[in-house]
């Protein structure tokens, strides 16, 4: 056994928007997870990134002994539920530090609490979302956003396009792009999730998957040719299926992932089925990143009523993925 095999898995957690629920959810999740993690993943160690005073006040008690706090100072004190653009760059500072640590090998995975995109943009930094920012900072030409539930055979939904206006989705789809997306999903499900032969069901774009061209030709001209090419590469990717009927147990029982064509095609179904326990994973990166499946919940910040279930699942997934990557 090498030294790398016995080194504790180092997991970084960014606490996100300081006016939101991220800091308190991180504390609550780690209190519940430390014992479980010590039992299931005895080699994990956690570093929480954020303002030390903020984290102390939102923790509602002491942080677990197995957690290190990496201090990054707020620009101005944060009040629960009250956004302040002055702290927009603070949020990116946490993310940058975690990314740099993962790229350098200091961290084996990062978990991100929710941030507020508007606060970062109001701070003068153009920002679309975690997924796009991670791709840019790691110089990754294509990444894939995947949300997942929990359980022995969880529902997983990946996206061919992410945060685009609906009117731009068709033009963003290409044969090469879909093949690259399927290649990333197939690779990461094998390498990070331990699935030896992933089966990826693919939706169409249009109602009824285009109805043989009467309701749109994207299925005929783009999606079907992409799936044929992907299958020639050894990727199990049947489709395209009508999205309104695909999400049924009889179709999903043998599936490891569904690839939807746009954000609001696949994610409403997944969030309805898994909200509060689901996670967001960015596939295709040179680093491992998981996140919660919800936003900053400003109305719950500081109340102690926010549910840490999704953060617990994200932490557990990060540890599991890091373990699979180390063993690969």
UniProtKB/TrEMBL annotation:
The misc remark on file is: The active site is located at the dimer interface.
Q: One MF term from GO for this chain? A: NAD binding
Gene3D superfamilies noted in UniProt: Isopropylmalate Dehydrogenase
Catalytic reactions on record? 4-(phosphooxy)-L-threonine + NAD(+) = 3-amino-2-oxopropyl phosphate + CO2 + NADH
The protein's Enzyme Commission number: 1.1.1.262
- Family, similarity comment: Belongs to the PdxA family.
Query: What residues form the membrane-spanning segments?
Result: none
Cofactor binding mode and count: Binds 1 divalent metal cation per subunit. Can use ions such as Zn(2+), Mg(2+) or Co(2+).
Q: Which cofactor does it need?
A: Zn(2+); Mg(2+); Co(2+)
Q: In which pathway does it act?
A: Cofactor biosynthesis; pyridoxine 5'-phosphate biosynthesis; pyridoxine 5'-phosphate from D-erythrose 4-phosphate: step 4/5
Please indicate if the UniProt record lists Zinc as a keyword: yes
Protein name, entry field: 4-hydroxythreonine-4-phosphate dehydrogenase
- Is Membrane among this UniProt entry's keywords? no
Q: Major location, coarse class?
A: cytoplasm
Location in or out of the cell: Cytoplasm
Residues that bind substrate, according to the entry? Answer: 130-131, 271, 280, 289
């Amino acid at each position: 056994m090498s030294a790398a095999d016995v080194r504790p898995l180092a997991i970084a957690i960014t606490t996100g928007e300081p006016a939101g629920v991220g800091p308190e959810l991180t504390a609550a999740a780690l209190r519940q997870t430390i014992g479980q993690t010590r039992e299931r993943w005895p080699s994990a160690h956690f570093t929480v990134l954020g303002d030390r005073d903020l984290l102390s006040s939102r923790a509602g008690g002491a942080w677990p002994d197995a957690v290190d706090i990496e201090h990054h100072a707020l620009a101005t004190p944060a009040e629960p539920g009250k956004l302040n653009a002055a702290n927009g760059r603070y949020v990116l500072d946490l993310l940058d530090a975690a990314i740099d640590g993962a790229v350098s090998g200091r961290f084996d995975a990062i978990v991100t609490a929710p941030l507020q995109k508007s606060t970062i943009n109001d701070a003068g930094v153009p920002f679309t979302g975690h997924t796009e920012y991670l791709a840019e900072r790691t110089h990754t030409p294509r990444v894939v956003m995947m949300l997942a539930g929990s359980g022995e055979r969880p529902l997983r939904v990946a996206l061919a396009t992410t945060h685009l206006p609906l009117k731009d989705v068709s033009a963003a789809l290409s044969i090469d792009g879909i093949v690259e997306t399927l290649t990333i999903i197939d690779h990461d499900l094998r390498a990070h999730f331990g699935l030896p032969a992933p089966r990826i069901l693919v939706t169409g774009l249009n109602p009824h998957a285009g109805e043989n061209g009467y309701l749109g030709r994207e299925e005929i001209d783009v999606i079907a040719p992409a799936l044929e090419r992907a299958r020639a590469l050894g990727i199990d990717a049947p489709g395209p299926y009508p999205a309104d009927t695909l999400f049924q147990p009889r179709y999903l029982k043998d599936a490891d992932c569904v690839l939807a064509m746009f954000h609001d095609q696949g994610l409403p179904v997944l969030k309805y089925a898994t909200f509060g326990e689901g996670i967001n994973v960015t596939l295709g990166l040179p680093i491992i990143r998981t996140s919660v499946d919800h936003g900053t919940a400003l109305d719950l910040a500081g109340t102690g009523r926010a549910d840490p279930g999704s953060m617990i699942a994200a932490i557990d997934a990060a540890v599991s993925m890091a373990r699979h990557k180390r063993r690969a």
